[in-house]
């Protein structure tokens, strides 16, 4: 794709799978992967096309190629490139040859296990007499050829080299220290570039020769202490398959620790330099570590947090988190006191789509508040400046291990390093630990593009390639290949740096299913090795979770065992669970009609006018199935949790259907992360705006919001909430606000500023097909915009639930066995199960989630005679309605008002 990466662009083409689309995913599951054996299309392709790289050199001895032609095979290489097909044969440059011999039976079992997508490829071994020239061959243009017995060229193609590079250099290179290193008053800069013909260092206005280590392929240069703080780039002369010529690239360091403004040059900076430590940094006292299974997480974008907060001294910056008296920080502290344990920051590494200098950033040149709530003028004006404004979610990595400069008071040099650390201090002092959203699955650019880094140093290695040698883009942008040794190493090294040097307390992996499971486990192992005595941090307390979606060219473990939902169960690394999220909201984010209802949006119990919901009988059946999905979610999404479903059958969590997949997949509490909304797709308030009957009052909308949030916060295992959701945050129905600017994304901490509903029709690029549904709602914005009573009441009710969740031990069960013993749904599958109501018994607690528009009585025979009362937190809490909930001891009957979640304690 061209221009700024669009976070969810790929989802448009995959809307047919709307029912299984993960709300926090960039892309969606695509189903079974395409077989890797030669296709009919491949057979019909030009067999002499050197722009493709269909042969794959997988180890020092073996070439895999999906060709069935020729009786004589060779690898040709030209140090300076220039090989072409002329007159049906190879010409254009002098070619050196490596002889190949076919391997009977093809790839070995071990090779097929390592490269399952190459199953069925023919195998060729490099002639032992030519193996001494392999390293040389890898630095030039490579062409695999097949000739008939008479010498006629039958097939020719370029060659992918990731496997052979790992085989030759991986063992030594994975041990190397890359980037800047400071020791004994000297500075060493190192870069892995095994295919480079020459690498030099451009530092401080002079050029320094770098030396290559034969075993590792690492080039290094060591200089005096005066190099510290100097700007530098590597000058890499290398064959680039994307342009099919030898190029000389001046490129920044993939292991940069600091950058100049605009990421134009790296800076030789020692992150351990005391000058970069803000006051109190080395003795920073963190809030007590919360185990992942108990984590309550607020997902937050740095700019959203403070850019419109008039009480902040540093709007839109890292330092806003040090403004203790700002409305935003006061709200975060209230959440922390209620039980929120982590703030999850959307990407804060160096990103490629926001100008870092404020002077270079554009702003909408319109009077945005002057337009009507349902106007298309706001989105048109915001879109005009979107490419160069200060806003982007940041899922467009440029340098993985340097803080983004646009959030600093000055993007030049190390100011961003110090201010990032002060942000961590500010959050920690407020009782909150810090999670970083990390995006190692793709880069902002590849090849010879201006913002390409990795691919300019080792072309064709760090990016994942398809069968033809083109960079895959299933994640939205140029995919990386963490299955390759040095990309996997970069992931681990980068994470360790953030944990050790910036004291980050957790990491959320974007599209984690595009990583090998082994890579994420390597991250876990490296973190576990960090100790307070040696490293200043307790690595074992760092939490890990991510998007375990299964799609793209890696789907169904096509290339490696993926870090997907089912594969990560039992590892201690959580994955987002879309099961109960879909059930409570209803339908999926790509439904043609967004009015498809769910448990928390009125399905069957409070139907809207959408025909997409089906008949009354169909609605009831779907609602009861949704309730089963939510029950599985409340168990922590445990695969083995046994209960009676709404049809009266005894089932396990894994037996409950979720669009053809098992609903339950977790092995223990903490494997699955629950949520009602996140940054992707409509905010919860906006989703409910589409789904609840249009005449629903704002007071009732607020109550349904609390109930929806409760299904996540009262589940076993961790839960995440988008910042502002407890304040009924709206993005004016925008389902993909990654580049929608401050106008659509701002959080209002002061209820008097409203919740954001009615800022105009959302940007056309991702929302125009929903405008016919959005316009009638936005035209009634005054009636659908909550006031301070609803906004503050929602937050207070949510905070009461957090207090219950984090103080009652029943919500923190450590094993699947404990959950099975303590958790039950006594009315499930019986004549007494009420559509729109879930009654959960959990140890000494009974939780009733009444999503219906009327008071419901739930008689639980098993507790008849026991003493229960409304939980003290709710009995003395902010929600007046829940205080009317009651319990009748003689019959074991719980009475709960409409649209209310009530917790009773024995």
Number of strands: 42
What is the terminal separation in angstroms? 59 Å
Spans of at least 5 consecutive residues with low confidence: 1-43
Percentage beta strand: 15-25%
Summed up, the helix count is 25
Tell me the strand order in the biggest sheet: 19-20-23-26-27-28-33-34
Rg estimate, integer Å: 29 Å
Q: Please tell me what the overall shape is.
A: globular
Coarse structural class: alpha+beta
Helix content: 10-25%
Mean pLDDT: 94
Q: Summarize the main sheet.
A: 8 strands, parallel, barrel
Give the topology.
Elements: H1 9-13, H2 40-44, E1 55-59, E2 62-65, E3 72-78, E4 84-86, E5 89-91, E6 96-102, H3 109-114, E7 122-126, H4 134-137, E8 141-147, E9 153-160, H5 162-173, E10 179-183, E11 186-192, E12 198-203, E13 206-209, E14 211-212, E15 218-224, E16 231-240, E17 245-251, E18 266-267, E19 296-300, H6 302-306, H7 327-338, E20 342-345, E21 349-351, H8 377-386, E22 397-403, H9 415-429, E23 433-438, E24 442-443, H10 454-457, E25 478-479, H11 485-501, E26 506-509, H12 517-528, H13 532-535, E27 543-546, H14 565-568, E28 574-576, H15 579-585, H16 616-634, E29 642-644, E30 650-652, E31 657-658, E32 661-662, E33 672-675, H17 684-691, H18 698-713, E34 719-722, H19 741-745, H20 764-767, H21 771-779, H22 781-784, H23 788-807, H24 816-822, E35 823-824, E36 837-842, E37 845-850, E38 856-859, E39 869-870, H25 872-875, E40 886-888, E41 893-896, E42 900-905
Helix pairs in contact: 7-23, 11-12, 15-16, 17-18, 18-23
Domain Glycoside hydrolase family 13 N-terminal: 178-256
Keywords: Signal
Signal peptide: 1-27
């Amino acid at each position: 794709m061209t221009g700024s990466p669009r976070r969810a662009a790929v989802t448009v083409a995959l809307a047919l799978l709307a029912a299984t689309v993960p709300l926090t995913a960039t892309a969606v599951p695509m189903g079974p992967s395409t077989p890797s054996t030669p296709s009919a299309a491949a057979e019909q392709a030009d067999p002499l096309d050197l722009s493709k790289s269909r042969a794959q050199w997988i180890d020092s001895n073996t070439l895999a190629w999906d060709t069935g032609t020729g009786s004589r095979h060779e690898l040709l290489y030209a140090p300076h490139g220039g090989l072409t097909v002329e007159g049906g044969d190879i010409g254009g440059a002098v070619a050196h040859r490596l002889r190949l011999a076919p391997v009977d039976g093809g790839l070995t079992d071990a090779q097929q296990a390592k490269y399952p997508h190459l199953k069925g490829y023919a195998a060729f071994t490099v002639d032992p007499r030519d193996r001494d020239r392999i390293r040389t061959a890898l630095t030039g243009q490579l062409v695999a050829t097949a000739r008939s017995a008479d010498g006629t060229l039958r097939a020719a193609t370029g060659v992918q080299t990731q496997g052979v590079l790992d085989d030759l250099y991986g063992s030594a290179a994975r041990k190397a220290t890359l980037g800047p290193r400071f020791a004994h008053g000297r500075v060493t800069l190192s870069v892995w570039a095994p295919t480079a013909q020459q690498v030099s260092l451009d530092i401080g206005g002079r050029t320094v020769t770098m030396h290559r280590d034969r075993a590792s392929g690492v080039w290094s240069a060591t200089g005096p202490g005066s190099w510290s703080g100097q700007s530098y780039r590597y000058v890499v002369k290398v064959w680039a398959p994307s342009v099919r010529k030898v190029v000389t690239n001046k490129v920044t360091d993939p292991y940069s620790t600091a950058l100049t403004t605009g990421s134009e040059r790296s800076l030789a900076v020692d992150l351990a330099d005391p000058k970069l430590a803000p006051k109190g940094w080395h003795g920073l006292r963190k809030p007590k570590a919360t185990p992942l299974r108990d984590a309550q997480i607020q997902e937050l974008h740095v700019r959203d947090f403070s850019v419109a907060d008039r009480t902040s001294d540093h709007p839109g910056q890292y330092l806003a988190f040090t403004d203790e008296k700002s409305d935003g920080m006061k709200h975060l502290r209230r959440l922390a006191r209620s039980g929120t344990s982590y703030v999850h920051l959307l990407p804060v590494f160096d990103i490629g789509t926001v100008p870092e200098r404020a002077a270079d950033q554009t702003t909408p040149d319109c009077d945005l508040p002057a337009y009507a709530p349902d106007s298309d003028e706001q989105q048109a004006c915001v879109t005009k400046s979107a490419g160069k404004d200060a806003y982007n979610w940041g899922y467009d990595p440029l340098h993985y291990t340097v803080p983004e400069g646009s959030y600093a008071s000055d993007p030049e040099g190390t100011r961003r390093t110090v201010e990032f650390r002060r942000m961590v201090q500010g959050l920690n002092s407020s009782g909150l630990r810090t999670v970083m959203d990390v995006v190692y699955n793709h880069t902002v650019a590849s090849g010879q593009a201006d913002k390409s880094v990795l691919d300019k140093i080792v072309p064709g290695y760090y990016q994942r390639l398809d069968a033809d040698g083109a960079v895959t883009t299933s994640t939205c942008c140029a995919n990386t290949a963490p299955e390759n040794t040095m990309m996997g190493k970069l992931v681990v090294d980068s994470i360790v740096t953030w944990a050790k040097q910036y004291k980050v307390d957790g990491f959320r992996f974007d599209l984690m299913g595009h990583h090998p499971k082994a890579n994420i486990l390597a991250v876990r192992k490296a973190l576990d090795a960090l100790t307070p005595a040696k490293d200043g941090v307790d690595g074992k307390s760092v939490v890990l979770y991510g998007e375990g979606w299964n799609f793209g060219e890696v789907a169904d473990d096509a290339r490696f065992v993926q870090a997907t939902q089912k594969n990560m169960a039992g590892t201690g690394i959580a994955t987002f669970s879309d099961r109960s999220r879909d059930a409570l909201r209803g339908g999926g984010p790509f439904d043609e009609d967004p009015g498809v209802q769910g448990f928390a949006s009125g399905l069957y119990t409070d139907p809207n006018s959408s025909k997409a919901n089906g008949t009354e009988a169909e609605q009831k059946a779907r609602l009861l199935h949704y309730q089963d999905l939510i029950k599985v979610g409340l168990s922590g999404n445990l695969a083995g949790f046994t209960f009676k479903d709404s049809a009266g059958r005894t089932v396990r969590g894994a037996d409950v259907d979720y669009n053809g997949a098992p609903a339950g997949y977790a092995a223990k509490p903490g494997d699955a992360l629950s949520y009602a909304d996140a940054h992707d797709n409509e905010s919860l308030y906006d989703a409910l705006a589409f789904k609840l009957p249009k005449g629903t009052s704002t007071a009732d909308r607020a109550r349904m919001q609390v109930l929806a949030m409760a299904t996540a916060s009262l589940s076993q295992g961790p839960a995440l909430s988008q910042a502002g959701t407890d304040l009924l945050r709206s993005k004016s129905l925008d389902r993909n606000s990654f580049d929608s600017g401050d106008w659509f994304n701002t959080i209002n901490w002061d209820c008097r500023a409203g919740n954001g509903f009615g800022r105009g029709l959302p940007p056309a690029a991702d929302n125009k097909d929903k405008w016919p549904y959005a316009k009638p709602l936005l035209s009634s914005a005054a009636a659908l915009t909550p006031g301070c009573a609803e906004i503050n009441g929602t937050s207070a009710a949510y905070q009461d639930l957090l207090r219950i969740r984090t103080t009652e031990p029943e919500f923190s069960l450590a094993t699947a066995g404990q959950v099975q013993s303590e958790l039950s749904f006594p009315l499930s599958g019986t004549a007494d199960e009420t559509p729109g109501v879930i009654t959960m018994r959990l140890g000494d607690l009974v939780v009733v989630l009444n999503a219906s528009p009327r008071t419901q009585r739930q008689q639980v025979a098993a507790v008849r005679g026991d003493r229960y009362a409304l939980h003290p937190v709710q009995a003395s809490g902010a929600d007046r309605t829940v205080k009317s909930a009651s319990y009748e001891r003689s019959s074991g009957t719980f009475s709960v008002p409409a649209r209310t979640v009530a917790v009773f304690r024995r």
